[in-house]
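Bug #2210: token dump truncated for 3-isopropylmalate dehydratase?
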Amino acid sequence: MKAFTRETSTVVFVPGMNCDTDQIIPARFIKADRAEGYDKFLFHDIRRDAAGALDPDFPLNRPGADKARILLVEDNFGCGSSREGAVYALVDAGIRALIAPVFGDIFFNNALKNGLVPVRLPRPLCEALAAHLADHPRAEVTVDLAAGQVVLPGALGSHPLVLDAFARDCILRGLDEIELTLTHMDEIRAFEAARIAANPWLGR
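Reproduced locally. Full output below:
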């Protein structure tokens, strides 16, 4: 996965309480080849009108929204089924961080395993940020994982960014759990060789 240390970006507010993984990526697209990118499926059904055309009023369809690397979302984002494809769709669309009061638990952990930083801030602060963005759509937010802080625009200040230490280290290094294991191959091989030397029957 792509390493994340610090991202400064404009922010798109995507409203909607309890936005579940089927809204983030409808189930019918999960069988698609990931190598071709899941970004085209992101919010597929809710960002289109009844005729299937992109709705110009949907936040991510507005001019310049595709440049944003941070989304502000509402309570319980990513609830519902455990599909990891919801995170793939966001990552493939270039989203590096999400800000919300609360995330769905499984979605939160899937995000960490794919280098997508879920930032939890108090609800009143998220609401204040949404109000600020409504008046200042070009305002930027900095998510600084290395420094452990989130810097909001205007007078909204700087706030701690707290993640599990193991997940934080993996994201900073750009390593998922398999890639992290592979960094220890010399020690693994040495252990296997010593174990077989001490127990020759294991090598038969």
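Output looks complete on our side. The two ends are 38 Å apart (CA to CA). Marking as cannot-reproduce; reopen if the truncation happens again.
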